[in-house]
Amino acid sequence: MRSLxxxxxxxxxxxxxxxxxxxxxxxxxxxxxxxLLVGPSFSPYNYSAPIGDVWEGISWxxxxxxxVLGRDMLTxxxxxxxxxxxxxxxxxxxxxxxxxxxGFLSALVGRWVDVLLSRIVEIIxxxxxxxxxxxxxxxxxxxxxxxVVIIAVLDSTRxxxxxxxxxxxxxxxxxxxxxRLRGEKLGWLxxxxxxxxxxxxxxxxxGLRFGFAxxxxxxxxxxxxxxxxxxADWGSMVKENALSLPVALVPAAAIALTTIxxxxxxxxxxxxxxxxxxxAPEV
Amino acid sequence: MAVVRLLATRVFWGIVCLWIISVLxxxxxxxxxGDLASVVFGQAKTPEAVxxxxxxxxxxxxxxxxxxxxxxxxxxxxxxxxxxxxxxxxQLIGKRLQRTLLLALTTxxxxxxxxxxxxxxxxxxxxxxxxxxxxxxxxxxxxxxxxFTGYFLAFFFAVKLGxxxxxxxxxxSMSFAEVVHAIxxxxxxxxxxxxxxxxxxxxxxxxxxxxxxxxxxARLKGLSSRRILLVHALPNAIAPIANVIVINLAYLVVGVIxxxxxxxxxxxxxxxxxxxxxxDIPVIQACSLIFATTYIVLNLTADLISLLANPKLxxxxxx
Lengths: 283, 319
Known about the structure:
The complex is a heterodimer. By secondary structure, chain A is mostly helical.
């Protein structure tokens, strides 16, 4: 009971520390996720079945009109959004797992491990990521698994750099030294000593990478190399309807709205993390 | 001396990156000889025909030998023939590369002065309503995907208002103003995508310089804040700003891929996307080699500029 009250108090404090724009973004993002989660079960239409004319306008039956094959747009937006958000989230999480693990490893072990990993990351980052993804996808048969892995690997290089530089400040602390002398294993050092101390900036980075993953996945699908029909995500829906401009703008606007909200929240998180860091030496 | 060694190391790493990438791009054909044949022959694939194609492409010789040949030819801008059209790839690419560069450079000419100006104004009026509004606007503008911005602009300014053409056709007989008018919408789309970054980083670079002690001295001397910004801060912020500009140019070169697809602009990016869907691997190799090389060279330039211009960096490594 008490922990519940504490949490609600913390949430209220967080809410009060946000600017108006951030509050709107949080609410809109929450609403989008809620609609994606429960929306499809309320829709009377099948997302893959044509039920009307091609590119019907807005009406009570079809609040967002119909698409290139006469399918209900609203239902498809909700279904496609699920795929976009889920894959982007999966890719970001995997990228974070990889990036943070190797970043902490570099900082904790140092020496040749650090040099080797840093060089590999440097080479991957020297390559324009869209081109790299396009080459890989041109060669392999596109599947959801491959999409997630590509985005995750490209993401993990940025995460690696951040987590490594953050962890380097932590591993020289006396309490890490103590833990090492106590004979703690690498896994413990990563999870219990380093991770809790780098969480706030990493959280902002997660948001940033999540927004990037949505954009990247959508761009690949838009270019015809991401999600393939009959399945659809927001990016491939823009491609399908590209010949009718106001219709193509609907899924594109869904992506835009989501990423704008994510980035405004990230801006707030970054400013918070910076304030915490710059306030620290004065204490 | 230390500077020279540092510069040499950077250039060396740039060359290593280029080499690794050329190997990567070259090995793309190695992974798929079967697919290459099925692209060319489709359903009519027979073992003899596949063998003949392998001979023609030289696939019966060792890969390292072919790699060197391919690289030497690519350095002379000779990429072989396209599988889909059988035309020499350098012919396909030449004109398109020019169009892509035109798009990227026109955007840069608009974006760089604008970003510097707005970035400076934001620093001058730091934390004012103007500053906050511009910053929020920058986040809103850089967040959406390029195809949203592109279709949005095309819908309102080409379809609804008819101010600009939605299909980008440039001919040699057009005057410069006409060319700019024709490619205005894709340029603005690219501008939206990179302006926010440039402006925000310019502002950040200037603000971090403004926190130095000598700026405080200048302020205590009673100088105006405009003079402090232009005469005292700006020269010292040139290195990070130049860095930002070059990195964004590198972004522009790759960013054209989506924008060219949106506007059906016949540039290098559109060619690459089309070649991927027809699996025309030699063309994909040529395009990605050009894109990757430009990107790496620009990033290398950014590194070199910041090394040369920043005495702190030079001394940090010399010590």
